[in-house]
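Issue 218. Parser rejects a valid record. Input:
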Amino acid sequence: MVQFVYPQNVKRSPLYWLNPRNIWAARQKIFRRDNSIAWRRAMEARYPNYSPDRSVPFSTLVGGAGSLPQAFRFLILGDTGEGDHSQYGALPIIRTMAPSFIIINGDIAYPAGRNEDFTRGFFNPYKNLGIPIWATPGNHEYYSELKGSEFFEVFCTHTRNREWSAAGLRQVPQPGTYFELKEPGFPLVLLGLDTGQAGDMDGERSGIRDEWQHQWLKWRLDLAQHEAKSVVVLFHIPALVDGQAKSKDTHLVELHRILAQYPCIRLIVCGHIHNFQAYTPATFRTFVLQQYEVAPTGNPDYWVSGGGGAYLEATDFKNPAYPLRSFPTAKQWGKYATGARKALENMGLLQNAIGRAGIKAAPALDPDEPKYLSFISIEVGPQAIDAVSIEIPDAEVTPYQGMPLPPGTSVDVMSSQTLVTPRAINSLLAAGQRVRLWS
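Output the parser choked on:
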């Protein structure tokens, strides 16, 4: 077994999460209103130079040369930003996969999207990758004192260009918190959406419906459908998760009704829950029909992918109403979870009054090991485009299996030199869940 060498002061102790300042910053419900639609409009009003279509060519991120190579890959990570061992543990594999760019599907900067959280959860871990990184905002980015402005400045403006340069990342500002990647003559479209602080695009809590984003989404999907493109849709907060419908917890009715009506959509990817869950097109169709009373004409897979580096959440689901495939498996989760975590869950203490108020005990009980990480690779080739889940049982073991490394070999997670073999990457690709996006 190899031993990972991490930068100093990376591990976050339980005292970090139990610090009253961080507990208060990361609260979800107590004295907190979701006005993120209004906040977003105010942010974008300060930077009115974006085009209405919010569309950027893939080639701008893939080398910026104005044309696409026949083969490349990009990665979709979710819930990355703890800035601890588990987040850093994915780096040797990410570097070996050599993506052209990365999209992080929310929760980039725990606990509350502050500038210091972006430094620790984004700029430091991905230092010297040398590629563009885009993102959709998660709930934690909207918990910030500036109501999400930090996210907007980092990803949508040149305000923080010195930090991008110092981190060795190629800065390509994205056209707002929701966006499109689309290239003439290229069969894939990627749409990144903004589900706000609490998934209230219907305005049930705030009284403001996200009509602009809904209208924009229909506009871009109409074009993709007309042009016979295949579409991947990303947003942070899911409504189908843990084998259950979370329709009462989220207000994303209009969003899912729109998504159900477009056959061009091949894959929907959410985050927010810290594991990997895959729901088939048949399950998605049943879910939409039962929960939103709409007969779907679309047929997408629906994935929850939030295993990019934050603390893991349980997969030993009790009586799921909707069948799913999950990673880690229930058996793997049982071996991973600490005794204290299991005891609290068995006693129901993670769902007590404090838990229901939105303050979770789980981060403080995180064993912070680089195990059961997961993310998605979009594999682009001349004959086909596939989405593949990368499911890593143990980052310190899996990538190095079968290699003549002496026991105890040290691997610097920040080093550009990699010992991970192409064979190991191909093994991960072969073992993952796969969706054909185009052929």
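Fixed in the parser; the record now loads. The CA atoms of residues 68 and 311 lie 36 Å apart.
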